[in-house]
Structures are given as structure tokens and as C-alpha cells.
Specification:
Helices cover 71% and strands 0% of the residues. It is an all-alpha fold. The radius of gyration is 17 Å and the shape is globular. The chain starts with a helix and ends in an 11-residue tail after the last helix.
């Protein structure tokens, strides 16, 4: 591992540790909106539901950006990219979001950050994932179902667009496993019919 690689990985993790849902709540609602959420997840859905439209958009853009920026900068450098190190750079902001260094027990699920690095990696993959998520979400009204669907789709897309890139494909499998593990409570609620559908918070 070169110094450059280590710096990008550290930068990605620290950037990923910024939880924009909590930050947006403080900016737009002057309070910790996650305290109102049953699952306390600092994600886009809770930001929209408990923080309002501006907070939700702020969170979505911030979480996408923090996944996108480290990978984009790494791939834009003059030095040739190392597939193994690229995998670590992609993983860093997602890991930071899930396990922020200052509060590893209350991180998010990393779906938007994953979407961000997808855009930096390959726009085709990101657009397909975005379309599939939108179709599933607007059909079911479950954010969790949309998230689980695109994370399961990610390894398949990697095989299609990057055949033979086994390191990155292996990482995509790890992302899928981690996302499904982080959604284990949602999966349980889906199975017993108690998962909440997305709806505007009643005033």
C-alpha cells in the first residue's frame, strides 16, 4: 500500500463518518431528529420523515457525495489505479457511515454512500441501480425493499460490466452481505408484516 492509497482510504472513512441526517436535523430543525425515529437510523428516509424536505435532500446529497468524492478523486489521479486499493477506497466512506469513529454503535446503513461510489465507479451501474430502486420503492413504498434489491443486484452488475475483476466483485459481495446484515431488523419486520411504509410524517 502506497502513502497515496492510505490517505485516500483515511479521507474516505473520515468523510463517511459525517452523518448528514444528524447534521441536517441540527441545521434545519435545531434538534436531533434521530431521537424521534424508532430505529434511530441516520439515513435519508428518516431525514425526510422527521426532518422535512430540505433536511432529506441535504442528507441524500451529502451521503451520495461522500461516497462519490474519494473514489472520483482516486480514479482521477495521474498514477494508475490499483484494483485492490480502489476496492478499499470504495469501502472506506461506506464503513465510515456504518461505523463512525466517534460513535460506532449508531451509524447508518450505507446505502446512499454506496450509490455515491457507484456513480464514481461506473455511471451505467449507478443509473441501473437508481432506476431499479425507484421502481421497487414506488411499487412497494418500502425503502428497505428498494435498498435490499439494489444491493443484491450490485454483484450481478459487476459481473456484467466488469467480467474478470474478481477483487471488485468480491467487494461487491461483501457490500451486499453487510447491507443485508444492517437491514436484519427491517427484514424481520417485513417477514412479520410490521415494516413501516414511507409516508409523510403527520403533524
Amino acid at each position: 500500500m502506497e502513502v497515496r492509497d492510505a490517505l485516500y482510504i483515511i479521507f474516505g472513512y473520515l468523510l463517511g463518518s459525517i452523518l448528514f441526517a444528524r447534521l441536517g436535523g441540527l441545521i434545519f430543525k435545531k434538534t436531533d431528529i434521530m431521537a424521534e425515529s424508532p430505529d434511530k437510523n441516520p439515513g435519508t428516509m428518516n431525514a425526510f420523515t422527521y426532518g422535512g424536505f430540505r433536511c432529506g435532500v441535504f442528507t441524500l446529497c451529502g451521503d451520495l457525495f461522500k461516497g462519490f468524492l474519494p473514489v472520483f478523486l482516486y480514479r482521477s489521479g495521474e498514477l494508475p489505479e490499483n484494483p485492490l486499493m480502489l476496492s478499499f477506497v470504495m469501502a472506506a466512506p461506506v464503513l465510515g457511515h456504518i461505523l463512525p469513529f466517534y460513535d460506532i454503535k449508531h451509524g447508518g446503513k450505507g446505502i446512499a454512500a454506496t450509490g455515491g461510489f457507484m456513480f464514481a465507479l461506473d455511471v451505467r451501474i449507478a443509473l441501473i441501480a437508481a432506476i431499479v430502486f425507484a421502481v421497487v420503492f414506488f411499487t412497494t413504498r418500502y425503502v428497505s425493499v428498494g435498498s435490499l434489491t439494489i444491493t443484491a443486484l450490485f454483484p450481478i452488475l459487476m459481473l456484467i460490466f466488469y467480467p474478470g475483476q474478481w477483487v471488485v466483485f468480491g467487494l461487491s459481495l461483501i457490500f451486499t452481505a453487510l447491507a443485508w446484515w444492517r437491514h436484519r431488523a427491517n427484514i424481520k419486520r417485513l417477514m412479520n408484516g410490521t415494516e413501516n411504509k414511507f409516508e409523510k410524517k403527520k403533524k
